[in-house]
Amino acid sequence: MVINPTYLAQRTRSSVNWQDAKRRVVKSYREWLRSAPEIQQMYSLNMPVSEIRTKVRQEFERHRYVNQLPVADMLLFQSHSEYQETLNYWKQLPHVLKYFREKENPTARLPQSFMQGFLEGRN
Q1: Single pTM value for the model
Q2: N or C: which end of the chain has fewer CB within 10 A?
Q3: Pick from 29, 53, 27, 25: nearest CA to 39
Q4: At 118, is the pLDDT very low, low, confident or very high (cuts 50, 70, 90)?
Q5: Beta carbons within 10 angstroms of residue 100's beta carbon
Q6: Per-residue pLDDT tens over the stretch 6-50
Q7: Rounded Cα gap, residues 120 and 80, in angstroms
Q8: If you write DSSP's letter for every residue of 24-60 in order, what string do you get?
Q9: Which of 50, 26, 23, 28 is nearest to 39 (CA)?
Q10: How far is CA 29 from CA 35, 54, 59, 106, in A?
């Protein structure tokens, strides 16, 4: 297998207006959804494709109410770089699985000092 670092590469560009940004977001979203079966197969994920697609939707919904065009462009760039790294298999399994981790418990107490955390095994 030949490694082609330019596979899925795109030029970085700014959106002209909100309609252009919306079109690019929908295109990116569809690319992620269409590649879910391939991601499942490549990384041998023990979860259904529907769960991967649900997580992709959650990640896109998290930034739904962005109201600044430069921020939307930056998020699109990050989305595409994640997409390229995922499909080129530049990520390892833990990098992909971090998106499926449950949110950490916000009520978990933090150690009082470094030494206490070290002794508890929380380094």
Answers
A1: 0.77
A2: N
A3: 53
A4: confident
A5: 11
A6: 777 777 789 999 999 999 999 999 999 999 999 999 999 999 999
A7: 40
A8: HHHHHHHHHHHHHHHHHHHTT-SS-HHHHHHHHHHHH
A9: 50
A10: 10, 12, 10, 30
